[in-house]
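thought: fold this chain, then report.
action: predict
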Amino acid sequence: MQCTNLVQKLLRLQLFDNFIICRRLALSTRNMSLEQAKQVAAYRAVDEYVQNNSIFGVGSGSTVIYAVQRLAERVELEKLHVICIPTSFQAKQLIIKHKLILGELETNPEIDVTIDGADEVDSNLTLIKGGGGCLLQEKIVASCSKKLIVIADYTKDSKKLGDRYKKGIPIEVIPMAYVPIKNKIIAMFGGEIKLRSAVAKAGPVVTDNGNFILDWMFPTQELDWEKVNNAIKMIPGVVETGLFVKMCSKAYFGQPEGTVVESP
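observation:
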């Protein structure tokens, strides 16, 4: 009897160990798939849109790391001359790290193409951006570009905003005005708004521009995003929104098996 109980116990332990191993493998495979998806989307966009003697807007986020990596490879192999305009401190550091030519809008106000990531992309190529807190500079650079090309993994591809991204629309605001801005947006459109808190410091997130970020968990009903964006930007104290409406020319979504889906 004791021997039988021991065998059963050992079997249960073995099954539990197998479960843990399988779970770790599944998580590892998923992470590998996401990174592969980001990489193939980034490489495709850089190969198709970056040309010699061009001005290139460098977006922010984890997918853009692969875009800069690919650009550096092409610059080395093809001897390209490309001036890079950063959208954030992170983007600037990537440009410097890969020994690319660093430019600025003051001397390069017209950009040939900007390649950037997104938190979510709907079927009309309306974007939610700003999960990393760089929405203002990203939108400025995008507005100066002939084309904005979005690169993302398959989890960012949605039919409508809010289908997959649940952290809300970022809104960059002047610190002194964040409470009245919050109240006015809720009064106009409903939903919930939270002041974004920092992770490694006490208090709110402070952007590269010294501002706060509100994250608006908007209601689920259909909204005219162009009208919403314009209305929010008219509130005194709002610096910029993370809604990018009618700005994106094309989106590349990397798939887990290594292919790329284009939209449109």
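thought: worth noting. The chain is about 40% helix and 25% strand.
final: tokens above.
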